[in-house]
Each structure stands twice: as structure tokens, then as C-alpha cells.
Specification:
five-stranded antiparallel β-sheet, Immunoglobulin-like, five-stranded mixed β-sheet, 2 domains, alpha+beta, elongated, 6 helices
């Protein structure tokens, strides 16, 4: 709201053909110059605040390369905003584009959260709401400075990124994810036996290889956080690498309920998986990826001292 009011005010000031006061020496001149510059600094501050919050939110919800790239893009905009302050409110095309991007990404999170649903329709509604708001401000601004078409272009780019699974499924956050042996559910307690990663692979929660004897099942467990009141249609996908590509082997659909701090838990398994490269994927049922865990299945029996019991 602050950015919207400032953008319209700066357009009003430009329409009145007001110019920056001449430079003067002394404290009085500095105060006058600061008063003229204050709206630009405030607009930069408001944009920076939104970009900072969005970067954290989309960073925490990212679970694969495409969504990581989007988070990096937001990080770049967060840094670039620190150097664009003198252009905001003067180059209005840039102002409307940044406002539209902020509004769209904020609404992409806020609207599904408000209605308690992650149905894909809310992404399209929130995207349209953000760009229409920017367009309405442009029409409201005296003289309609700058161009609004780049804002619509950004909306189109975000829709394309959505179709390529590059938009993180905010507000969902992957809390935990593992594959292993002998899944056990005892009341509200879920446990899974996983093979410990080598000590030098300190960044891994488990070994990249799972050893299974013939006939043994491979289990997968996930914990996905969602805010209280938000439900999501999720799925587990098991994929195996064959003939130069990933082949779908099994899919398990379920619905999650938000509010649990450690995330809503889901589990699934593959019966006697063939040796080779596998992927365990947790995603929304409309195709947005939350997390991917690659693993290699090999025949054999894991060493007893390599087994770690994980609780979810």
C-alpha cells in the first residue's frame, strides 16, 4: 500500500512539472534536498522489504533446480533494489514493473493462504490480481507516466515459469525426506531405518546408495509443512532411470493438513525395486515439485553399524 501511494504521488509531482530544488550549501540545503529525495528512498525501502520477505519465503519452499533459480532471481532483485533507488519514481516503467512483480508474488502466497487451498486456480487469480492492480495504479496516476506493458510481460513470464515448474509451491516447505528399510508406524510415531552417509559426506542425511535383498521393499517418508488451515493435495512419485530417461513406476496420492510444526507426514513404498538409479519425489498433485531425493538401489545387505533409525 505504501509503494502504491508513493508511485501515484510521484506521478502527481511529475505531472505538475516540479523539479528538484537547486543545490544549496549548509544544513538548510541538505534538509531541502533530503525532503525531495525522501519519496524515492521510501519507495526503495518498501520494495526492498517485500523482496526480502519473498526471497526468504521462496527460498524455504524451493526443492529443486528450477525453483532454486527463481529464488536466486529474487535474491538478485533484492540486491539490485539497493542500487535502483534513484531511478524509482523517475523511470516509471521500471516502477510499475517492480510493483507488479511484488504484488503478483505476494498474492501468489497470500491468496491461497487466506482461502486455505493450493488449488492451481488461485495462482492464476492471484497473478491476474497483481498485474491488474499495477495497471489500475498506472491509469490512476496523473499523466500515466511510463509504460505498463512490461508489467504484463512479467506476468506472462511468471505463467511460463509456473508451467515449467519453476515457481515454488509456497507456502509449502519440505521439512524432512528419506528413503530406507522397514518403515514402522506406532500411533503418531513414524520410524524408518536408513543407511548412514559416509562421514566425509557431511551434507547428506543418508547414504546415496540403498542396499536391498531380493524381495525387499523400498520405503519413502516425507514431512511437508503448511500453515494452519491450509490443505494441499500431495503425491509421492517413484521414478526409475531406464533407456536414457526417467520412467514413472508408482504414484501415491494423499491430502495434507497444515499446522504441524514438523510437517504433515506421508509414506509410500515400492515393491522389490530393480537395481539402478531411482528418484523419490514429493509434489503437489497439479505437478509442482516440493522435493526430490535421488537414490541408487543395489543388491546386498547393509552393514549393521551403518543403519540409522530416523523418526518423523
Amino acid at each position: 500500500m505504501g509503494a502504491a501511494l508513493l508511485a501515484v504521488w510521484l506521478a502527481h509531482r511529475q505531472a505538475r512539472e516540479l523539479t528538484a530544488p537547486p543545490a544549496e550549501k549548509g544544513w538548510r540545503g541538505r534538509v531541502v534536498a533530503f525532503r525531495w529525495q525522501t519519496p524515492y528512498l521510501l519507495l526503495q525501502f518498501f520494495f526492498g522489504g517485500i523482496f526480502s520477505a519473498l526471497f526468504i519465503l521462496y527460498f524455504k519452499s524451493s526443492g529443486h533446480l528450477g525453483t532454486w533459480l527463481m529464488a536466486v532471481f529474487l535474491g538478485i532483485l533484492l540486491v539490485a533494489n539497493e542500487f535502483a533507488g534513484k531511478h524509482l519514481g523517475r523511470r516509471f516503467t521500471l516502477t510499475w514493473a517492480l510493483f507488479a512483480l511484488n504484488a503478483i508474488l505476494l498474492f501468489n502466497f497470500a491468496l491461497p493462504h487466506a482461502v486455505g487451498s493450493l488449488d492451481p486456480v488461485w495462482f492464476y487469480v492471484s497473478t491476474a490480481a497483481g498485474v491488474v492492480l499495477a495497471h489500475a495504479l498506472w491509469r490512476l496516476a496523473p499523466g500515466k507516466p511510463g509504460m505498463i506493458f512490461p508489467a504484463w510481460g512479467l506476468a506472462g513470464v511468471l505463467l511460463l515459469a509456473w508451467s515449467l515448474d519453476m515457481i515454488a509451491p509456497v507456502p509449502l516447505v519440505r521439512q524432512d525426506m528419506a528413503v530406507g528399510h522397514d518403515f514402522v508406524q506406532e500411533g503418531v510415531r513414524y520410524t524408518l531405518r536408513v543407511e548412514r552417509a559416509p562421514s566425509w559426506q557431511f551434507w547428506r542425511d543418508q547414504a546415496p546408495v540403498v542396499h536391498l535383498v531380493p524381495g525387499e521393499n523400498l520405503y519413502g517418508v516425507t514431512a511437508v509443512f503448511a500453515p494452519l488451515g491450509v490443505t494441499a493435495a500431495l503425491e509421492h512419485r517413484w521414478e526409475v532411470w531406464e533407456n536414457g530417461g526417467w520412467r514413472h513406476a508408482y504414484r501415491n496420492k494423499f491430502h495434507s493438513t497444515g499446522g504441524r510444526e514438523r510437517g504433515f507426514r506421508g509414506y509410500s513404498w515400492v515393491l522389490n525395486p530393480q537395481p539402478g538409479d531411482w528418484r523419490f519425489v514429493v509434489a503437489t498433485q497439479d505437478g509442482r515439485t516440493i522435493g526430490i531425493l535421488p537414490v541408487r538401489v543395489e543388491r546386498g545387505t547393509p552393514l549393521p553399524d551403518s543403519i540409522l533409525i530416523r523418526e518423523f
